[in-house]
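Form P-L/3: holo structure prediction, ligand zinc ion.
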Amino acid sequence: MSVDPCVSGPREVVAALDVGGTTIKAAIVGVGGRFQHRRVLRTPVTEGPDAVVAAVLGEVRALIAHAEGSGSSSVCGIGLVVPGSVDAAAGVARFAANIGWRNVALGALVEKETGIPCSVEHDVRAAGIAEAALGRVAGVDDAILAVIGTGLAAVLWSAGRQVSGASRLAGELGHLPVWPDGEPCPCGQRGCLERYASAGAIVRRYEQATGRHTTGEAIVALAEHEGAARDVWRDAITALSIGLASCTMLLDPALIVLGGGLSSAGERLRAAVSNALATRVVWRDPPPVEISPLGAGAGLLGAAILAADAAGVPGLVASGSR
Ligand SMILES: [Zn+2]
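OUTPUT (holo model):
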């Protein structure tokens, strides 16, 4: 990339965007990971993949204008995190099923438009970068972050390093088979964890059982006194505990952190997963289970860290990121 890095200074900020199939989260982030401006807009997926690219470029321009409009800041780096298959080195979104992107050179498009260095990364890997730099995994060498949102995926650390795998496909926790001959998954397999335990699955399975549509967090609360919600929640926790028990046997983590949108269920989620895991991991101590302090904002914070890296000022947002 032929963009000059900026020089670190107290007024430099970064622009961060977390582009999902439902919403685009956007923020201006300053020193120490402090959010100075933040907003959420709907992703225009129904208007086609080009409209989503246009919305991203429009929001990047709006963030830059907002920072400069205050008269005291300038954007020195941009971080974009997206779902699906991402070639981070090339800055290309290879494939994002729920947005319709195929081989979109987002990094080059943004840099051409703005003249500011831009980093592109997978949303869950970015959440892992933030969790390791500023969240609960900071200083923990062996850990699992399970990001439970519309989908379900994990970031794995072993001996202090994020495990990426031969094809950068490590951490696809959502497609771990946990139910023999279970529900078919759009991935082509059957009985995938994501079909039972993602927030999307909890909402879908509750709606199938009752005809009512509500949020995953609401269903978790309803499970204390309503049979249909209790059945859906029990299946989710059973599936999640089977998946995390398998991960525990493979990786021997010191800690399991639960993040993503469903982590807003807080202690209800943590206690249910921790108790279920303790019934499955019996010959050794199960690892402690905690809720991510960064929650659903981890991807956006990861985008900010990557933006600072792209700008050549890696300590701007988080020192010691890995
Ligand atoms: Zn699957």
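COMMENT: The pocket of zinc ion is lined by residues 175, 185, 187, 189, 192, 194 (CB under 6 Å).
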